[in-house]
Design brief:
Blueprint: E1 2-6, H1 11-21, E2 26-31, H2 39-42, E3 47-51, E4 69-72, H3 86-105, E5 110-116, H4 138-157, E6 161-166, E7 168-170, H5 179-188, E8 201-202, E9 204-206, H6 207-220, E10 226-228, E11 235-236, H7 237-248, E12 268-269, H8 274-280, H9 288-302
Parallel strand pairs: 1-2, 1-4, 2-3, 4-5, 5-6, 6-10, 7-9, 8-12
Antiparallel strand pairs: 8-11
């Protein structure tokens, strides 16, 4: 199998690239800075790299044609600090449209692009992926826009296309200031983290599970579908944070409820994974507790 991955230096992109290489794929990574590639990726005999911005990527940059799947994971502005940068988020539309054009010119069997639960941020129950999206920031709104741009362009190009809704993902090497990273860093440094009420229903999934699901979608997914990725288990956000605390030190304080809520609405980050299980055979294997133990151990070694 031969695959193209944009964003092979990113958090999910690097894990997906390794997942593919470990399953005997030949992988071409498209990155803006090859110096950021992990050594085990960069030095792998089945990996090659195109050091180029996705917006300027051309099919002539590739040595071969006839790839099996193009995973479009490259995205500018994924950290919480950048999610409302309008100019940065809008650049992702151009990047994604160019990516699917290159995919078509390379005779690639399937184009898989990554969406996010942030498209449905104002949902209060399990997400209906066929319902109107309700994003809560520019990042989520841009993901919605890119989904529809790609859907139309795929139809115009007659390019098989799948959109995926990626869950709240955690694991080693994710270092932006998301709630998992914030909690782990604070507790390991004996600083009390502060939160709102954390009543939201949430679904976190360990990164190796996310990329396994993406690989299976690329192999077995049905064209035109939107696949939700997740564990299929939902708990109040408070319980995940308490689990992290208990693993690090059950005697540490958590500042739950110490930050005023900006909305009376309690949001949800839970997605139905029936189609993913039915079509690809995906079955979650790593629990939140096991995944977060591995993540905490990585942070302990990194401090």
């Amino acid at each position: 199998m031969k695959a193209i991955v944009t964003g092979s230096t990113g958090f999910i992109g690097s894990w997906l690239t390794l997942e593919l290489l470990n399953n005997n794929y030949q992988v071409v990574g498209v990155v803006r800075n090859s110096n950021k590639l992990m050594p085990e990726i960069k030095n792998h005999p089945n990996f090659s790299c195109i050091n180029k911005d996705i917006c300027s990527l051309k099919s002539t940059d590739f040595i071969e044609n006839e790839y099996d799947v193009f995973f479009n994971l490259g995205w500018a502005g994924v950290s919480p600090e950048q999610k409302n940068s309008i100019d940065m988020q809008l650049s992702n539309i151009t990047m994604s449209l160019n990516a699917i054009q290159v995919c078509k010119e390379l005779n690639c069997r399937l184009f898989v692009s990554s969406g996010t639960v942030a498209e449905y941020a104002l949902t209060t129950d399990v997400m209906d992926l066929g319902a109107k999206q309700k994003p809560n920031d520019i990042y989520g709104a841009t993901k919605v826009a890119v989904h529809y741009y790609l859907e139309v362009r795929a139809r115009q190009l007659n390019q098989p296309f799948i959109w995926t809704v990626v869950p709240s993902t955690f694991g080693e090497r994710r270092i932006d200031n998301n709630i998992i990273t914030y909690t782990i860093r604070s507790l390991l440094n004996n600083v009390k983290p502060q939160y709102g009420t954390l009543e939201q229903m949430w679904d976190f999934l360990y990164v190796s599970e996310v990329v396994r699901a993406l690989r299976l979608i690329g192999e077995k997914g049905k064209t035109g579908k939107v696949y939700g990725i997740g564990s299929g288990e939902y708990r109040p956000l408070k319980e995940y944070i308490e689990t992290i605390r208990d693993i690090i030190n059950p005697n540490l304080d958590l500042g739950i409820g110490e930050i005023p809520s900006f909305s009376k609405q309690s949001f949800s980050s839970c997605v139905n994974i029936y189609d993913l299980i039915h079509d690809t055979g995906f079955k979650p294997e790593i629990s939140f507790s096991e995944g977060i133990k591995r993540t905490i151990e990585w942070f302990q070694l990194s401090l």
